[in-house]
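User: I would dearly like some help making sense of a protein record. I have put the entry right below:
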Amino acid sequence: MGKNNRRRNGYLTGLAALIVLLSFACSPARKAIKAPIKEEGADYLFKKLKEHELKYTYFMGKFSAEYKNQKKTTSFNGQIRIKKDSVIWLSLTPGLGIEAVRLIITQDSVKMINKLNDTYYIEDYEAVNHFLKTNIDFDILQAYLLGNDLQFYEEGKFRATIDRNSYKLSTADRMKLKKYVRNSRESVRAFIQNIWLDSETFKITEADVTEISNEMIKLEASYGDFENIEGQLFPKILDVTIWADNTIKVKADFSKINVDVPLQFPFRIPSGYTRLK
């Protein structure tokens, strides 16, 4: 009898061990818990940020996007081409698969043709910002589209903290470099800026910027799904909100990305199109 009890207990022990193993094997994969990140100085983090930014002369990417404004939502596909510090070119295509809108943005102007209603638009940033109730310039737009830091603004005095297990850089006095202010009518502006960095890759995961004279955040962005593009990490998901009288939200999912392949930026206003004001 004792022998049978020992044999039965051995079976039960083995069965219990098997059940435990199966329960671990069948349970959802557990995410590795990140160790607390160590504090680093602002100068070190800013240097790492610059080292890990996307380096490029030309950039091209296809994307699908969703645009929300005044409770209206529009979905479309598109392509973006950029020559660094020079030109941003956009082609937008709705569900029908036919190009509807083409834009070309330079350091001093915004041009658009709308093929759906045979109209075009040519204005400077002052007119565009008056319409959007913002103060966005080419440098800010270029940086936020690609998840990089501003190029032509002073480094400022950043303060480093740890927030939500990420590094956070903050500054309340980032002035635009005067030598890059090309229009004498343009005032030199200061911004409050916050940047969140991944603690391992030092890529920007979130950023916001606001004018120092206004408490409301003017522009904020978040980045995700980073992919290795020729040795550099690029965020395939971009989520941007412009906080203004009409809050604008844009979410884009990038695909087919190319870096440093020479590009063309075709833009021609067809005859017979009507200029919009």
In short: DSSP finds four helices and 14 strands in the chain.
